[in-house]
Amino acid sequence: MLLKKLQLKTIDYKLVLTMCFLFFFNSIISAQEIIKDTVIQKPVQLQPGQKQKIDGIIANVGDYIVLDSDIDKGYLEITAQGGSVKDITRCQMLGKLLEDKLYAHQAIQDSIVVSDAEIRGMMDDRLNYMVQQVGDINKVVAYYKKNSVEEFKTYFSDILKEQKLASEMTKKIVDAVEITPEEVRNFFKKIPKEELPTFGAEMEVAQIVVEPKVSAEDEQKVKDRLNAIRKDVLEGSSFATKAVLYSQDPGSSPNGGFYKMTRKTPFVKEFKDVAFSLGEGEISEPFKTTFGYHIIMVDKIKGQEVELRHILIAPTVSETALKDAKERIANIRAKIENKEITFAEAARTESDEKETRANGGTLINPNTQDTRFELTKMDPTLYSQVSNLKDNEISQPILNTDDKGKKTYKLITITNRIDAHTADYAKDYTKIKELALKEKQITTISKWFDTKIKDTYIKIIGEYRDCNFVYNWLKK
Questions:
Q1: Whole-prediction pTM value?
Q2: Is residue 74 over pLDDT 60?
Q3: Is residue 83 within 8 Å of 125, Cβ to Cβ?
Q4: For the chain, what is the radius of gyration of the CA atoms?
């Protein structure tokens, strides 16, 4: 669960680094979040006269070890998220660490490969965030008591690799689990009537989108501007500096337009085609994607990975074009209101949004991949646009601006409402299937642990041998 955005007051950079390290280790924080000024209490307090416990190995799982301090870091992570550690025992925390180690160990046995390029990409993301928070890479290095940046990177790389191996192993187990309609039916039947889940109110929504037309003259202005930048770079100017000054891509312009990518990286096809057609040091001609016009310069080619910089500039939409788009969508709305055409037919023939056009404008919930949106979980912007609409009512033209500044006009309508209700097999089959699949995945993982624990060298030391674990780590 993501942390809530909190007001930043004053904060110790050491606390920031600890939080960054732990949050990124579990992939639970985004670069937009702010961490509250918080005092993290140690889970174990020394009594007067009590000796400081020396950190040491408390468990082995295959070639992996668990240190006593790893448990304290686990407590710190939960506390930093705003959670309570009051009811979490050290035995429970150790059990979770043992699970992670076994996943990573078995990933190696199963020949799951994590490339150096993947780890470098993860490393860059995490270090960039840490440095943004504290302002100096040397503070990061000093906090983790390493002698150099390279020593810290080696240490951090090992942790990231273990994390990635565990993630890939978990994915391999879960992805192999399939469920049949008969299993879904049996899952539903075994739920006592009084324990059937309740699903919140939902709705299905459709939209028609009209994009303002950019004139050929405005497009040519952008291409001319990019060609001028390209010429300056070829004559000795810094591409990275130009990207910082002129690129409209918020994801890369602060870093001089820098990206690392392989053919599997989820960039649009046009961008990848150009990127992989260039040699080191080459700069592309301006080319167009759905985001605007780009130029790319390739810095390095490392096997299947390309390190590049790019500049994005989108043509300016004129007020005349915006006005024309509004008039066009108003005419579409009038035709629907006058019963000349249905909303779905208008979406198929008039909408400029390729993703929804084919299915009559129906939106797909990005979280569930079906057409229903639960009201309590709906995106706030979308909810504000549909919350006051009545059945079969079509919104007035809405001017929409996306996160990259692109402006469009759209019409929205509610095509179906589903009131809050107790689970019904026929109406809620998709949701029930998800619940049944999750139960089967949990059972599969449990069986996997039972089998792999028997086949793996596992040793637990000292007082932790008295723990009552969920899995049979002690092989009793």
A1: 0.63
A2: yes
A3: no
A4: 27
